[in-house]
Amino acid sequence: MGKAVKSNKKNTRFSKFIKGIEIVGNKLPHPFTLFVGLTVIVLILSFILAKLGVTVTYLAASKNATEAPKEKIVVVKNLLSYAGMRPFFENFVKTYVGFAPLGLIMTMMLGIGMVEQTGLINAFMRKTILGAPSYMVTAVLAIVGINANLASDAGMIFTAAIGGALFKALGRNPKVGIVSGFAAASGGFTANFLIAGTDALLAGITESAAKGMGIEAPTHPLINWYFMIAATVVITFVTTFVTERFTTKFLGDSTDEKDQSILQQHTVTELETKGLRSAAVAAVLYIIFILILTVPEFSFFRNEEGNILPKSTLTKGIVPILFFFFFIVGVTYGKVVGVIKSEKDIPKLMQKGLSGCLSFLVVALPASMFVYLFKESNLTTILAVNGAEFLKSLNLGGIPLIIMFIILSTFINLFLTSGSAKWLILGPIFVPMFAMLGLSPALTQLAYRIGDSSTNIISPLSYYIPVVIGLMDQYKTNEDEQNGIGTVISLMMPYSIAYLIAFTALLIIWYLLKLSIGPGVSMFM
């Protein structure tokens, strides 16, 4: 371990820099307080700018393709007036309940809660990892970790913990397993082969920002799915490469002796295996059922013209389709393994699944008011038009503009770790701004997700860094060994940089080839 100690000393200045970021970041208020403050700022700005007579003039496109764009003048609306406050109070409850992300995240979490609370995800992860050859463990741990966001934040903790235990059992350095597992689950949080609660949550915010500005474009939870599938493969490779080429050399690693007792503790039981098989059968049958209702001409999930794209019952009803998928698969597994003994257990498990988003339900109250008032004040239009004009004056093409936004997201993520909170702030500004430059809300959301995901693991404000430190302390080989925030962040930095480069490069390739980033979703307006 001498080599690791020496390397840590070289990172003293960097650790001090990170500590400085931690001090500054800790001064930021809770997201709830932050949105209350932003709401107050919007109210004051609307009053001042309205009194100053601030306006903006631009060419607004018509919904009728045959009509030419018309000049439109928008003025700032004073919200601190009878005309501004009366609708606010009259529609207070409606604004909160009708907040797009609220319904989406609650519905998705009710469904995902069934596969999480019954133990299906946990068993599937262990089955996947333990069934892999030792030389493939890093890659398998990475791909499982990336897809672990299906279990929301719990996936980060589980993947790091199982990574440490598994590597120790295989005779390898358990710290390497902890680091690579956490890096994959947290840094790859936005990628997945399937659709997770994150997709629904961010899409709901995007929908709110787009509809608030009258932007007609797809905003369903699948708008980034094609890209995320490819990103899962790329980030798996990147995680494996960084782990084997850097982390193992830095921390030291070997494959001396396997600890069969530890392996035995995490082995999937026969009952769990039976449950997984039954769940797989249920999943296949459900998919076949959906295909029967989709493939035939003029079938249920097609629109009245017999098409699926751009709009149909399939694209508009993707949330309930996913909900029933998770619900059926979860209930099937739960019944087989005995977690669900009667119908009374089902609502209890769904309730536990919903508890994971209680904090968001609280933050959504001031956030919904902020989004509503921000839109009503017309400040979104003022910012979007002026921002678009400024970006146009820089003569930036699509790629430089996207890269600038990604970098902005990575920087903000160091101080505000909540992905939904950041997007609630940035979405209403950048969705309309990018739309005015011909870039779709789906692309704007994707660029944001890349920046947000890449720096999750190096944010000193991350709730999970203390968890990683605790896990690393469990495998201390020297009592004098110190594991702190600087230790974790220094180990995560190579992953963060590699993720940012890989995600961005993949997006550039996607952009140049003009590939669809989701079902019926283009990068352009």
From TrEMBL:
GO terms for biological process: p-aminobenzoyl-glutamate transmembrane transport. PANTHER family: P-AMINOBENZOYL GLUTAMATE TRANSPORTER, P-AMINOBENZOYL-GLUTAMATE TRANSPORT PROTEIN. It comes from the Bacteria. This is AbgT family transporter. Keywords: Membrane, Transmembrane, Transmembrane helix. One of its GO terms (molecular function) is secondary active p-aminobenzoyl-glutamate transmembrane transporter activity. The chain crosses the membrane at residues 32-50, 96-116, 128-148, 178-203, 223-242, 279-301, 321-341, 353-374, 394-416, 423-443, 492-513. InterPro entries: AbgT (IPR004697). Pfam families: ABG_transport. It comes from Crassaminicella thermophila.
